[in-house]
Amino acid sequence: MENRKSAKEAPYFMIQSVDRTLSILQSFIEERRPLGVSEVARKLQLNKSVVHRLMLTLLSHGYLEQLKNTDKYMVGPKAFELGSVYTNSTNLVDEGKKILIELVDRVGFTAHLAILEKDSVLYMVNVEPDHLKYLFGAVGQRRPVYNTALGKCLTAWLPEEQVAKVLEHCSFEKTTEHTIGSFEEFRKELERVRQLGFAVDNEESSYGVRCFAAPVRSKDGDVIAAISTSGYGVAEEKMNELGFTVKSLASQLSRRIGYFDGP
């Protein structure tokens, strides 16, 4: 059971415990689903007790999370943070800034780039026209998922069980009369987002403000971020136009960081 890599096969510099720990994380990358200790041990041909201790170590550092009331584990927030460092190094932020500047020039409203971090939307880049500076938040600000266009975009293409986990502790507090008030209502809204390819916050987080967001995809096709534009007093007849403008520029950004969606 301990012969996953023989001494002859392993490079001289290999530290066995580090190699095994990284192999556990690789298992989650390959399987892309929650895994139990026994499954990982079988996959890696390692002793179950060894795998268990290593997974508990990863858990304690935030690289794994244990699913509530189960013996299954999933990738944790620290792994996401590590991945986001790589994402940043592959020009998501730099290319995102260029796209947001173009978006602001086209529509005249504030533009944002954000990611999903645990159960909230985390703003990574803001670009603002001079006349709207500081009105719509700053880099590092967090916003709820359920009542923002960015939150809808960042969750619309996730498996439903993952969306449920993101919103597990969401109270669906009504910030305006238009705010989504339940998980079922939110789930239906995500269907609409997937059909359109963009999301709308129609005065759901603040009266008078409408926001339009679209997903940014990695080279593997996963939604890793979203861009949006927000403004006061957006006319109803302009809503579709703004949505499709954001969608088009989000697609451009996706292609710039390696996503290919065909001809």
Automatic annotation (TrEMBL):
<dbReference type="InterPro" id="IPR036390">
    <property type="entry name" value="WH_DNA-bd_sf"/>
</dbReference>
<feature type="domain" description="HTH iclR-type">
    <location>
        <begin position="15"/>
        <end position="77"/>
    </location>
</feature>
<dbReference type="InterPro" id="IPR014757">
    <property type="entry name" value="Tscrpt_reg_IclR_C"/>
</dbReference>
<dbReference type="InterPro" id="IPR029016">
    <property type="entry name" value="GAF-like_dom_sf"/>
</dbReference>
<dbReference type="Pfam" id="PF09339">
    <property type="entry name" value="HTH_IclR"/>
</dbReference>
<keyword id="KW-0238">DNA-binding</keyword>
<dbReference type="Pfam" id="PF01614">
    <property type="entry name" value="IclR_C"/>
</dbReference>
<comment type="function">
    <text>May be an activator protein for the gylABX operon.</text>
</comment>
<dbReference type="GO" id="GO:0003677">
    <property type="term" value="F:DNA binding"/>
</dbReference>
<dbReference type="InterPro" id="IPR050707">
    <property type="entry name" value="HTH_MetabolicPath_Reg"/>
</dbReference>
<dbReference type="GO" id="GO:0003700">
    <property type="term" value="F:DNA-binding transcription factor activity"/>
</dbReference>
<dbReference type="InterPro" id="IPR005471">
    <property type="entry name" value="Tscrpt_reg_IclR_N"/>
</dbReference>
<dbReference type="InterPro" id="IPR036388">
    <property type="entry name" value="WH-like_DNA-bd_sf"/>
</dbReference>
<dbReference type="GO" id="GO:0045892">
    <property type="term" value="P:negative regulation of DNA-templated transcription"/>
</dbReference>
<keyword id="KW-0805">Transcription regulation</keyword>
<feature type="domain" description="IclR-ED">
    <location>
        <begin position="78"/>
        <end position="259"/>
    </location>
</feature>
<keyword id="KW-0804">Transcription</keyword>
<protein>
    <recommendedName>
        <fullName>Glycerol operon regulatory protein</fullName>
    </recommendedName>
</protein>
